[in-house]
Each structure stands twice: as C-alpha cells, then as structure tokens.
Specification:
The chain is of the alpha/beta class. The chain has a domain of about 170 residues: Alpha-Beta Complex (Spore Coat Polysaccharide Biosynthesis Protein SpsA, Chain A). Helix content is about 40%, strand content about 15%. The protein is built from seven helices and nine strands, in the order αβαβαββαββααβββα. The strands form two sheets. A six-stranded mixed beta sheet has the order 2-1-3-6-5-7, with helices on both faces. Strands 4-9-8 form a three-stranded mixed beta sheet. Strand 5 and strand 6 form a beta hairpin. It starts with a helix and ends with a helix.
Length: about 250
C-alpha cells in the first residue's frame, strides 16, 4: 500500500471516529407560556438523540414575544442564569443549550462530539457577517466559559437595553477570534440552519428560504411573533420532506 493510500485511509478513520466519548449529554432549554406550542409540537418531538433534557418553565415577562421588546431582557437574564447553572452541573464535560423554536431532522450527537474536539464552545451562526446566535450552542463546563457567561450576565443586569445575544457578541470578538477569556470556539456548520444564515434578512410567510440539502436542524429565527415562527417551521419541514423525496 503506497503512502498516499495510507494517508487517505487514516484521514477517513479520523473523520469517522468521534474525538472523544461522552455517554450522556444534557440538553438545556427555557420556555415561557407563549413558546409552549413550539416546545410541544416541534422541538421535543423532533429530538432524535438520547439527550437528558432539562427544560425550565418561567413566567411570561415579554408579552409581545418580539426581539428586544419590553420584558425581553428579563427573560434572557433567566436564560443566562440557566446557562451558568449548566456550566456548574457539567464541569469538565459538554452540554447543549437550545431555544425551543427549533426542530431537528437527524441525530446530532455524533456530529457534535466530532466538532467539539478541543473547543470550549461551538455555536450557530446568525447571519452572513458571522454574528453569534445564542439560541443554539454546545458548551464545555470550565472556568473560561463560566467567566464569559458571568460577564454576560453582569453586563445585562446593568444595561436593560441589552440581551444575551447582543452581550455575548460584545464579549467575544468574532472577527479576530480573540477574546479575553481565551475561549477556543468555532461556528456550527450551516447544516445547523437558521433563517438568517445566508441572507441576514427578516423572513415573512410566503418568502423563499434557501435550505441546506443535508440540514440536520432548523432554528426558526429572523421572523416576528409565534405565528410566523410556526409558519417558518412548517415551511422548512415541508421543504425538507420534498428534498428527501427527490433524493
């Protein structure tokens, strides 16, 4: 066997095998009464992995359920509290945080284990410019991530015009990938799809969405209100079914 064939074989084995093994992964989510329909009809039924699901239900503080509307920061502060708790509960191992306006189309555990490698954080991309989306990420419980999310919470508590995602992007400078926490992080690939990944434009019912053919997950963001989120979830689900039928 020549050297090139040996190298190709080793690369194939490396890519097929998870870098490390973690038998049980906890998935944390936060929900309010307005989002219960998303959790019950799309999020939970679509999960195809044996995650240990920890779902916290809190009161409705943002009545309009619109980004940065009154009560939004209060809700997202509770989200950050849950993330900090998850870091403590998973010290030395990894966990997932997910919003509930999400649906899955394939198992993702093995993909995540490969992608984490030596990373402290892998996170969904929000738009073509690379804004980090705090609605879905995988995180390692350690001092670096604890320091990051503790700072996110402190900034939010002192600035009610902020949110978890806005503040996270202030703390981690994505363009240089340098950060004061020395966190090693990477974007999730576009198969972890969000409505703004390719366009950064607001989606409304009736609009087209470019969907990756090998999509594993869909985050119904870049739209306004629960009804439009449901419309987007249904639209993507139907498009995925059509793509699979063609294949």
């Amino acid at each position: 066997m020549n050297t090139c064939k040996i190298i190709i074989m080793l690369i194939f084995i490396f890519l097929k095998a998870p870098i490390f093994c973690q038998d049980s992964i906890k998935l944390y989510c936060l929900t309010t009464p307005s989002h219960k329909i998303l959790k019950d009809n799309y999020f939970l039924p679509s999960i195809q992995d044996d995650f240990e699901i920890i779902c916290e239900e809190i009161e409705q503080t943002c009545e309009s359920v619109k980004f940065m509307a009154e009560g939004w920061t209060d809700t997202t502060l509770r989200k950050v509290d849950l993330i900090i708790r998850a870091i403590h509960e998973n010290w030395g191992s990894i966990f997932i945080f997910s919003d509930v306006d999400i649906q899955f189309f394939k198992p993702i555990k093995n993909i995540i284990l490969k992608l984490m490698r030596d990373n402290d954080l892998i996170i969904q991309k929000n738009n073509p410019q690379g804004v980090l989306c705090s609605g879905f990420f995988v995180c390692r419980g350690n001092q670096k991530t604890l320091d990051l999310w503790t700072d996110v919470r402190t900034i939010m508590a002192n600035d009610k015009s902020s949110s978890d995602q806005i503040t996270l992007n202030r703390c981690i400078k994505r363009n240089s990938k340098k950060n004061p926490y020395n966190i090693t992080w990477a974007y999730l690939p576009n198969i972890f799809f969000g409505a703004g990944i390719f366009t950064g434009h607001l989606w409304m019912p009736g609009k087209h969405l470019r969907i990756p053919t090998n999509i594993v997950m869909h985050h119904a963001n870049w739209t306004r209100g629960i009804e439009h989120k449901i419309a987007q979830l249904e639209y993507v689900k139907q498009r995925v079914e059509q793509l699979r039928a063609v294949c």
